[in-house]
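Could you help me review a protein record that somebody else here produced? This is what I was given.
***
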Amino acid sequence: MAAPTIRPARADEYDDIARVWMESWVSTGLAEPSAFLLANLRARVRHEIEKGWSLFVADDQGTLAAMLALHPPDRYLDQLFVAPEYQGKSLGRELLAFTRAQLPDEIWLRCVRENEKAWRWYEREGFVFEKETVEPTTGFTMKYYRWKKSATVRP
């Protein structure tokens, strides 16, 4: 079976993208699935697209396996969420490689401190912890990470 294809998202997929996002977020144990959460994520996808997101999906022969949201002018990896049934199959690593091709010199991101699985994965992938701050709109403590191409070059 072929690996999912990473491609730009289409507007007719935004609701499915929000569903993948919610299912992946819920899989962290930090939220419960709800119609309210799904509605908020649906609205956020549209809002963030208007603000400049470059939104991509991992398409597994018509099934959305993951979503990836970048803000290239800021070198910001805003969201990377893999559907639970695709987790543990290196799709996150493929999405991160795709991100590095889009943002080859530097990438920064934020992770919820309680999502230890995610931030430990980013650390293993060469991201360096910079700081923690409380996100006032959610109350979550966010860990900030940065990856720089020069930092990964070894003699």
Summary: The chain has a mean pLDDT of 94. The two ends are 37 Å apart (CA to CA).
